[in-house]
Amino acid sequence: MRDPDFIQGDVRITGHRGSDDLLSAGLGLAGLAGTPAPYADALHPTAGELRRRAIQNSWKGIADLGPLGGYGRVYGAVPAVPGREYQAFARIPGAHAPHRVLLQLPDGFDTQRRCLVVTASSGSRGIYGAIALAGAWGLPRGCAVAYTDKGTGAGYFDPADDSGVQLDGTRAKRGSAPLEFEPVPAAADAGVAIKHLHSGDHPEADWGRHVLQAARFGLAMLDRAYPEQAPFTAQNTRIIATGLSNGGGAVLQAAGLDDEGVLAGVVALEPNVHVEGHGRALYDYATDAALWLPCALSDARFDRTPLARGKDGKPPAAWLARCASLRELGLVGGDTPQAQAAQAYEHLRKGGWTDDALNVAASTQAFDLWRAIAAGYASSYLRRGATDMPCGFRYAATADASPAVRASWWADGAGIPPGNGIALLGGTDATADPALPGTRCLRALWDGTGAEVAGLHASVAATSVRLPRPELPLWVLHGAEDGLLPTAFTSEPYVAWLHAQGRHPLYWKVPHAQHFDAFLPLPGFGERHVPLLPYGYLALDRLWSHLYAAAPWPRDNPPVPAARPRGAGAMERAALGLP
């Protein structure tokens, strides 16, 4: 049987059994939660070691595996799932760079109830970026799981030694092997090139196509694995799409492009979803937050907000400096930081931010994520390379980016630096508010004028979702206290738009859930919030019952679970309010 025409090169097939399974690479729950999986030789990690570490980091980046969180005890599980992996580079027509597709096929694949789960990585993570959702739910059930990195991932290219990442995760020199990302040659000091941001492809506009392509890849690999039962098609194999964050947005994009009825149902968690003319686009509210939020969080109402105060109980000096900067620019008035902070807060509130979202957005500000997101996405939207990013930004290896750190980039990187020996540089000055110049420049790309602004707006418009078919079972779940992708800008306008167009999505705005389950072990988070993953698993269970047990699909929302914070103790099932 011929592979699909979008496959670039060979399909890599590996077996994963015994001490190296599909779901945890043999680490089990305790190992996933533990210290980084070791390398025998840190300078030359093997493909298997890199895979194990990549799976571990993907779990840690998505799930709360802490001792109080309840994973594996209250909800979820990490059983050993033996099987095979089929992985390849693939290409969207017209794209400069390839992306990864992967099928995990358990030995216990249920050939009588054919099930293929298709998913896209969260954030800008690599190919295993949705394993804690799609893999954890689908593999133990006997489903095959098809993944796409949707044009993101940590296939960083390093001009310092002209190296990139091979299909197996190891690094290789340009020209010596097919690489995940291979930009045009540049000087050795040109800085690190990131696939999502510097490929020139604007992958976000194609995330839905990536998901549908991953489904085709999964079906083709099932044909390979079970030739006597081929062909596997959308007519004889139920294809369930699920994802969270950017992956959630990707499966909703796919639902709108699925004219052939490939998808049997969709479950999207906390999706980065944009409907042109409804809500606010990520770049809009991220740059708004990057400019205004440091000052707004200096308001006394956030004195008890986790990560909003230093050890001295005061706002960081940089946040107070932002208040002074806003006053100098004439954007706020008042002679005290308190008066200025109150006005910055009111600005954000008028823009649609809720108190719940602002409280949790303090963590995003504390980790400088708004600026990192905006700088990277601006580069992607304007199709820039590593040497001509907007607003003077660039990525460069830090002094501690040792050969061992670089060798592990594919396994350890989250897809958008800073981190793992790569810094975001530029866009700063030597004042008390050094991040202000770059932040203002990024904001001006949204609310300014000129060709660059028009180009960025056109790129954002290209990410807008289309209507799914009327009969498609579709469930959106979002944390009521999401401070990164607030519901007021994403899920709520999307769901309202669907209803206005005669669709009947299910929607759960889960009380006390925020964006990052992985943040719940942080001080002040776990006692205030509930994880979102268990509600995603439950929605997938309901979809399974509908598809395989003829359970009716609700036309109206089931009651939203009465979730409540766990408090200082360990999570108990009653706190989740699961039916």
Describe the structure.
The two termini are 46 Å apart. This protein has a domain at 282-460. It has helices spanning 28-33, 47-62, 131-138, 195-198, 207-225, 246-257, 282-296, 317-328, 337-350, 355-366, 369-381, 403-407, 409-412, 436-447, 451-461, 491-500, 533-549, 573-576; strands at residues 7-16, 83-90, 99-106, 115-120, 144-148, 163-165, 171-173, 238-244, 265-269, 394-397, 422-425, 474-479, 506-510. It has 579 residues and is of the alpha/beta class. Helix 7 (282-296) packs across helix 10 (355-366), helix 7 (282-296) runs antiparallel to helix 14 and helix 11 crosses helix 14 (436-447). One of its GO terms (molecular function) is hydroxybutyrate-dimer hydrolase activity. This is Hydroxybutyrate-dimer hydrolase.
Key traits:
single chain; 579 residues; alpha/beta; two-stranded antiparallel ribbon; 18 helices; 13% strand; Hydroxybutyrate-dimer hydrolase
Q: Care to give the gist of this entry?
A:
This protein has 579 residues and is of the alpha/beta class.
Question: Would you spell out the secondary-structure blueprint of this structure?
Answer:
Layout: E1 7-16, H1 28-33, H2 47-62, E2 83-90, E3 99-106, E4 115-120, H3 131-138, E5 144-148, E6 163-165, E7 171-173, H4 195-198, H5 207-225, E8 238-244, H6 246-257, E9 265-269, H7 282-296, H8 317-328, H9 337-350, H10 355-366, H11 369-381, E10 394-397, H12 403-407, H13 409-412, E11 422-425, H14 436-447, H15 451-461, E12 474-479, H16 491-500, E13 506-510, H17 533-549, H18 573-576
Parallel strand pairs: 4-5, 4-8, 8-9, 9-12, 12-13
Antiparallel strand pairs: 1-2, 2-3, 3-5, 6-7, 10-11
Helix pairs in contact: 5-6, 7-8, 7-9, 7-10, 7-11, 7-14, 8-9, 11-14, 14-15
GO molecular function, one term: hydroxybutyrate-dimer hydrolase activity
Protein name: Hydroxybutyrate-dimer hydrolase
Keywords: Hydrolase
